TrEMBL record:
Species this chain originates from: Microbacterium jejuense
Entry keyword annotation includes Transmembrane: yes
The entry's keywords: Membrane, Transmembrane, Transmembrane helix
Segments crossing the lipid bilayer: 40-66
Name the record gives this protein: CU044_5270 family protein
Top-level division of the source organism's lineage: Bacteria
Length: 326
C-alpha cells in the first residue's frame, strides 16, 4: 500500500477532555471507533492520564464546524515499499526480531534508579473558522514534541512544546498567530500518589506472562488486533522497555493477527518494517513501525472509510513517533 496523502487537529486540549479509566475497556465492545470529536482512536482511551497525553494527536470538533466540505490538511502518508507478504510473514518477522533482541546483549536504555524519559512527536490540525466571507488561513498540520518523564519514586511529568507547522506538501507554514517552535504549550506534573500506571515494573519478560498481564488490564474485544496495538501504545507511553521486555511485546504481537505491509522510512528518517491491522469494521487501520534491530519507533492510525467529507481516504488520523527512549 503506497501512502501519499497528507489530518485534522483541534485548537485546544480542553476540547478533548477524556477521563475513561481502563475498566471502561471491559464494559462493551465498541464496534466502530470514530473520530472527529465523537471518540478517539482506541489507544487514547486507556487511562485518564494517558488520554491527557494523547489528546493532542486526535481530531476535534473544530473541523466539523467548518462550513465547506473541502478536505482538511493531514500529515503526509508514509511511502511504503509493499511486501509480497501477509499474516504468517508478520508473525515470523516479529518472532525473529524478538529472538534477535533477546540475544543482542543491548544494555537497558534506562539504568535502574534513573528517571525514564520518552520523547515523542505527534501532531494536530490547526483550523480557523471565520465568519461568512472572512478570509482565514487554510488548515495546516502542527507537530508537537512531547516529553514524558517517569521518576524513580513513581512521580510523572508530561511537557508539550510546539513544533514547526507544515502544509500538506510538507512545506513550512508561516502563521503569525502560532506559538514559535519550542514554546511550551502545556505541562502536567503528578506525584506518585496521583499517577496510576497500568503496567507493572518490571514488565514480564515471558510472552505468555505479558499476554496475561495485558488481558488482565482489559479489552473491549480481545480478538481485535487494533486493540492489541492500542494497548501497546499505552505501554510505550508509560515505560522505557528493557530489551527482553520489548522482545516479549513483539512475541505477543506475533500472535494477534497483524499483516506485514512492507518497509518505509519513518517521519524521523529511520528505516522500519510496517505491520498493520487487517481490514475491519472500524474504518481504521492501525500500524506499528519496527526497526531492523527490533525496536518499536512509531504507531500510526489511518482512516480508510468512505463516509467522511472533511478528510480524504486514506488519511493519517494520528501518529506518534518516538524520538528517544532513555
Amino acid at each position: 500500500m503506497s501512502d501519499q496523502r497528507p489530518m485534522p487537529r483541534g485548537d485546544a486540549m480542553e476540547n478533548l477532555v477524556i477521563a475513561q479509566m481502563r475498566d471502561d475497556l471491559r464494559a462493551e465492545r465498541r464496534r466502530r471507533r470514530r473520530f472527529g470529536g465523537l471518540s478517539l482512536p482506541g489507544w487514547s482511551i486507556l487511562t485518564s492520564a494517558t488520554a491527557a497525553v494523547v489528546a493532542v494527536v486526535a481530531i476535534t470538533v473544530s473541523m466539523l464546524a467548518a462550513p465547506t466540505p473541502s478536505y482538511a490538511a493531514t500529515p503526509p502518508m508514509l511511502q511504503i515499499e509493499a511486501a509480497q507478504a501477509g499474516r504468517d510473514d508478520a508473525a515470523e518477522l516479529l518472532t525473529d526480531l524478538a529472538r534477535q533482541l533477546r540475544t543482542s546483549g543491548e544494555p537497558d536504555a534506562a539504568p535502574p534508579g534513573a528517571p525514564q524519559q520518552i520523547v515523542m512527536q505527534n501532531w494536530g490540525l490547526v483550523t480557523t473558522v471565520g465568519a461568512p466571507g472572512e478570509k482565514v488561513p487554510p488548515p495546516f498540520v502542527e507537530p508537537t514534541e512531547m516529553t514524558l518523564t517517569r521518576y524513580p519514586d513513581g512521580s510523572w511529568s508530561q511537557v508539550a512544546v510546539a513544533g514547526i507547522p507544515y502544509d500538506t506538501q510538507g512545506d513550512k507554514v508561516e502563521d503569525p498567530d502560532a506559538p514559535p517552535p519550542g514554546t511550551e504549550l502545556w505541562r502536567i506534573d503528578q506525584t506518585a500518589a496521583e499517577r496510576a500506571y497500568m503496567f507493572p515494573d518490571p514488565l514480564p519478560e515471558d510472552a505468555d506472562d505479558l499476554r496475561r498481564t495485558m488481558l488482565d488490564i482489559g479489552f473491549a474485544d480481545e480478538s481485535s488486533p487494533n486493540e492489541w496495538l492500542s494497548l501497546t501504545g499505552g505501554l510505550l507511553m508509560e515505560r522505557v522497555l528493557r530489551p527482553r521486555e520489548e522482545a516479549a511485546v513483539l512475541e505477543v504481537l506475533a500472535g494477534v493477527g497483524l499483516d506485514l505491509a512492507g518497509t518505509t522510512t519513518d517521519r524521523l528518517g529511520r528505516e522500519a518494517y510496517v505491520l498493520e491491522t487487517p481490514p475491519s469494521d472500524v474504518d481504521l487501520v492501525d500500524r506499528i513501525l519496527i526497526t531492523p534491530a527490533g525496536h518499536i519507533v512509531a504507531l500510526e492510525t489511518v482512516y480508510v472509510g468512505h463516509d467522511r467529507t472533511d478528510i480524504p481516504s486514506p488519511a493519517v488520523v494520528s501518529y506518534m513517533a518516538f524520538e528517544r527512549r532513555e
